[in-house]
Specification:
There is one protein chain. This protein has 524 residues and is mostly beta strands. It has two helices and 42 strands. Strand 7 and strand 8 form a beta hairpin. The N terminus is likely disordered.
């Protein structure tokens, strides 16, 4: 493997993904959506050539001719597809496409979803009279395309309602229009004004302020964006100063799955915020830049990798032509990219065999809000349904707004709330029954864990160990199901954890700069 990586480096890491095709009409770089119900060939070139003279013809004439067939669209129906040029042949546009950032060839525009929109099936909102924000109906949009299959900005879509208050129950049918594209989404504010009102009365377990970490601005070393050829190994020292847990590189993620140009919508970079693993499916939330995740109503892409099909090192070369085309294509077939969808901060990520769940929160919110839960279908990588729910201690005035959460199954969310005023962390189990949610505080731990109040950067519930794990930068805290601090591990990586997950006995950790996933069989 090392020889292979060295050969790739010698071949040139900075090779471009493909040059702009010659003599093609240019336009703004945009995302294209492949129509999965159709299948068209993608050809390396498209040019006018001289037609050979036949017995009945004395003069040659120019005809359009395709070059070598590189692939077919069915192979890339969930890849990230971009284009910025086309040729008009025989009255039809043929677009030159970049797939996951690599130039591939020309394809008939009939291969794209044109003048269509993808919207969520339904939205169910909690009756919350203190949520001043309400529901932004843009959140229900997966994508909208124009007549040539290019994804358009959501701001250009006409909506019958821009925002729906959660203060009173009711039913709405929101309509969306752009050109010939049309769709509608039913939205309901549920009737039970007391839904989610409960008591935060669990006695906290023993915790404390036992660690001190740095803030990102204080870092002397943040890692490198250069290609990596060796795995990282980080030993975590526990509260007794002994080596007790080991993290080892699982794989390095691509630096980009798009051209490094264009709008935030069409630029897919691996600025990871969230991570989850279920079986061989690993999902991450990705943003244009790390700071974008901290904006209200922030949007990004969800990426799904099949862990048993991706190599340890070679995905770092995905956007380039360094990889052999057929090797690159085999990797691309095992990576799925969602449209540009609402994700919030992106760290409250979970998944099951069929769905991905994201608690799309704003990590800078100051006023009370309800929690917005997205259900994303793994088959389409599009948001299927949206719910909001509220968890309140005694009254809506004391809403719990969760910045970190994990998913146990399709009906159960485990969420973490930092109660700063009482200096403790609360663990909540939220169960969905139909479209309603019931909440129960299951545990709490005293103290802030980190003495200098660094923000949580990863949270997961480990079913095998029956405990919670909380990450702060390169610290990992293990909390028992009863809320006692069992141990903590300092990996001294001087890199920020950006997502924490568990599946069976393993713990998975995402670190940024360069984006990397590490795993560990944690000690009990």
């Amino acid at each position: 493997m090392l020889l292979f990586q060295t050969a790739l480096l010698a071949a040139g890491l900075l090779l471009t993904a493909g040059q702009q095709p010659v003599a093609a009409a240019g336009e703004k770089l945009s995302t294209k959506i492949i129509d999965g119900k159709k299948n068209y060939g993608i050809y390396a070139s498209l040019n006018k050539v001289n037609q050979k003279k036949g017995k009945k013809t004395r003069k040659s004439k120019k005809v359009w001719k395709f070059g070598r067939k590189m692939a077919s669209t069915k192979e890339f129906k969930l890849a990230h597809v971009q284009s910025q040029s086309y040729k008009t042949a025989n009255g039809r546009r043929y677009y030159y496409v970049y797939i996951d950032g690599r130039g591939v060839g020309y394809v008939n525009e009939k291969a794209f979803v044109r003048s269509k929109m993808s919207l969520v099936k339904s939205v169910s909102l909690v009756n919350d009279n203190v949520d001043s924000a309400g529901f932004n109906t843009d959140d229900a949009i997966n994508y909208v395309t124009d007549k040539h299959g290019s994804v358009v900005d959501n701001g250009l879509v006409k909506k019958s309602i821009d925002r729906i208050s959660e203060e009173k129950p009711g039913h709405w049918l929101v309509t969306y229009r752009y050109g010939k594209a049309y769709g509608k989404v039913p939205v309901t504010v549920r009737g039970n004004a007391k839904e989610g009102i409960t008591k935060a009365s669990v006695k906290p377990g023993k915790g404390g302020n036992v660690g001190k970490t740095w803030f990102p601005i204080e870092l002397a070393f943040r890692g490198s964006y250069s290609a990596q050829f060796f795995p990282h190994t980080y030993w975590g020292t526990d509260k007794k100063g002994k080596k007790a847990a080991k993290l080892t590189t699982k794989f390095y993620e691509p630096n980009s799955l798009s051209l490094l140009a264009g709008s935030e919508e069409t630029n897919v970079r691996t600025n990871v915020q969230g991570l989850d693993v279920y079986g061989q499916d690993m999902v991450t939330t990705n943003f244009y830049g790390g700071s974008r995740a901290s904006l209200d109503n922030s949007r990004g892409h969800v990426i799904l990798y099949h862990l048993n099909k991706v190599p340890t090192y070679a995905l770092q070369y995905m956007p380039t032509q360094t990889l052999n085309f057929y090797t690159w294509k085999s990797y691309a077939a095992n990576i799925k990219v969602s449209p540009y969808i609402k994700l919030g901060h992106g760290q409250s990520l979970g998944s099951t065999s069929r769905y991905i769940y994201e608690l799309a929160n704003w990590n800078r919110a100051q006023k009370p809000r309800s929690n917005e839960l997205l259900q994303i279908d793994k088959k389409t990588m599009q948001v299927n349904r949206i719910w909001t729910f509220a968890v309140s201690n005694g009254s809506r005035k004391y809403n719990r707004y969760f910045l970190n959460a994990d998913v146990i199954d399709d009906n159960t969310v485990v969420a973490l709330f930092h109660n700063k005023s009482k200096q403790r962390y609360e663990f909540w189990k939220i169960v969905r029954k139909g479209n309603s949610f019931q909440a129960k505080e299951t545990a709490a731990v005293s103290g802030n864990l980190i003495s200098n109040s660094s923000q949580v950067q990863g949270f997961t519930y480990n079913v095998a160990h029956k405990c919670y794990y909380i990450a702060f930068n390169d610290y990992l805290f293990k909390i028992s199901a009863k809320g006692n601090l069992e141990n903590f591990y300092h990996f001294n990586a001087k890199r920020e954890v950006e997502g924490l997950a568990s599946y069976k006995s393993k713990i998975y950790v995402a670190m940024n700069k360069r984006a990397e996933v590490l795993d560990s069989n944690m000690t009990k």
